[in-house]
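Re: beginner question about structure tokens

> Can someone show what the tokenized structure looks like for a real chain? I only ever see the sequence side.

Sure, here's an example I had lying around. Input first:
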Amino acid sequence: MIKIHPKTLSDLEFHTVCAQLSELCITDMGKVKALKLAPQRNYRKTLFVLDQTQEYINSDTHETPIPNHGFDALDHELKMLGIEDTVLEVGSFRKIGSLSETVNTHLRYFRKFQETFPVLHQTVRDTEYTTELTDEINTIVDRFGEIKDDASPVLLQTRRAINEVKAKINSSFASALSRYASFGYLDEIRESIVDNVRVLAVSAMHRRKVKGSILGNSKTGSIVYIQPEATQTHQRELNNLLYDEQEEVKRILKALTNFVRPFGPLLKDYQKLLSTIDVIAAKAKYAKKLDAVLPKITKNRELEIKEAYHPLLLLNNRKRGEKTYPQDIKLDENNRIIVISGPNAGGKSITLKTVGLLQVMLQSGLLVPVHEYSRFCLFDKILTDIGDNQSIENHLSTYSYRLKNMNYFLRKCDDKTLFLIDEFGTGSDPELGGALAETFLEVFYERNSYGIITTHYANLKMMANETEAITNANMLFDSRTLEPLYKLYVGEAGSSFTFEVAQKNGIPYSLINRSKKKVERGKIRFDKSIANLQKERSKLAKTTTSLKTKEQEAAKQQQELNKTNARIQEKLESYQELYDSNQRLIYLGQKLDDLSDKFFTNKNKKLLLDELYKVVQIENSKRRKQNAKQKRAQKAKERRVKQEAEKKVEVIRQKKKEEKQKEIQVEKEKPKITLQVGDQVRLPDGRAVGSIDKIEKGKATVDYGMFTTQVDVDTLEFVKRPKTK
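And the corresponding structure tokens:
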């Protein structure tokens, strides 16, 4: 049987989760039930409540949503029904009828969609379905919460009589009003209301001339309010009828109360059912807020949590716009206990609480913010020792309290236990406390318990390094800045960075050095070795990240390059098609020119037509038969490619034109050099360089070594002038 101690729930702040869940409920009973949420007692029940939540989430995608489950609590009504001869008010019956109809709606819905929501159907299937309540209440009470006229024959007859008397009163009053107004006895306001009775507003001087009962007067005494004599008889009749109506309503409500009274236990079940559905709906809403999922629940003793977030930290950071770092943790037969070490403020305690809180939430039927491929087993006991727990009432120090807690752990710990201990062994002498903590850890290990502890003790780190199924872990820190990275690394102990952090915070190096001398050299070397390993691993992690980034960039570039090559290949094929088409047209043009030339020579029309027909036949044999749509598509493609090619060619032409203009401009701007004998020159279109032997009458004799030539001086291009000695 699963039994989680209330202290564990308190240590893991599960009550805060319950409070947030309660806020998402829409009924008062649901809110109370959410606050009392606790882990289930067995494996089967845990899976059942998890499936309830998952099915409710899946209902969002269903074509017909789950009906509204809201209702007004019947605490007062149920209490009254438990007392003999009590009578409920008419409004209470409206609440009872609404509750019964809401439950019936849910029963019909889950019966109809039983295959889609099997677990939710199982949740409601044992609840009694009946329409007796709603039928009886709807017969007597209307949708506005009033007693219907036909609730009984007597009431119907009485209300008809009341309406007739009211008509007579209105008629007689109107007659008196008209009569006395014509006599000028009434004030300007003519009439008023006194004690819900229509009265004449008579001038005080004419009060004796109006027959009737005086019911009051104005503050100044100038107006007297009189009920006409003609209406008094009808009013007395109306009062009697109203009394009869009231008595009949009481009788009807008493009879209806007696009818409902046996349904009291059923109404309690109805409230319980709807409040349960309310909590399930709240769980679904909470899961959506956290982006939570239902992981794999296994009977094997393993806990593989991927990309886990602490729910409370996640929601708080979202409000503040800050990032929350996920954690990965794995516990199994080969790795039952993890020892997390490293400096403070690195996230050790949060990691510990994340594992514990997610486990408690899952065993309470709440989905958890982890990767969907995560795997959870269920633990019978979850034991926690987190935080500074001094007991003022019992006069216990932190260490005494923790020893008392450890004693409880030793009595309860077994192979179905998950223990979570923060700052294991602290509160006493480091040497003695560390030794005792190591002994406790040995006992937990021997009992095959699963657990996570955080510590600064070197002996516990060494034990984890030397013991099978116990693994060191540390929270990563930036080796340069010593800022936390909030990432758990399993497989290596963490350094406390005691002296490094002290130096970073401005403690003089001389004092740090003196402190180092007071500590055993072996401990310093051990901690330094761990610190160096962490620094090297941090550098390696950065290098790995950098390489992965570059690899991704290279892959992206390769993908872009492939796309570009594909586009180029497509364009090349299109240009080739255009070139082939143009070549074919050129060939046809040449053929037509040959035929024209022959016809020009021999004037043989028949031969011309024969040759032309042959050409047409040959060309048609090469054509593929196409419909009108294909022809239009082919024409459009050719037109598009041609336009694109023309644009490209135009750009190239424009570029060459600009380059030529630039060359001409450079030539114009280039200073004219007067050629001299001995200058090395060349022709504008040539590559060979020769030297000028002599210049006469605008002609220059140029020696190229193997031969000499005579050219115009203006056509030569200056290359180089030999240096003068």
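Each token stands for a local structural state, so reading them left to right follows the chain. The longest strand covers residues 186-194.
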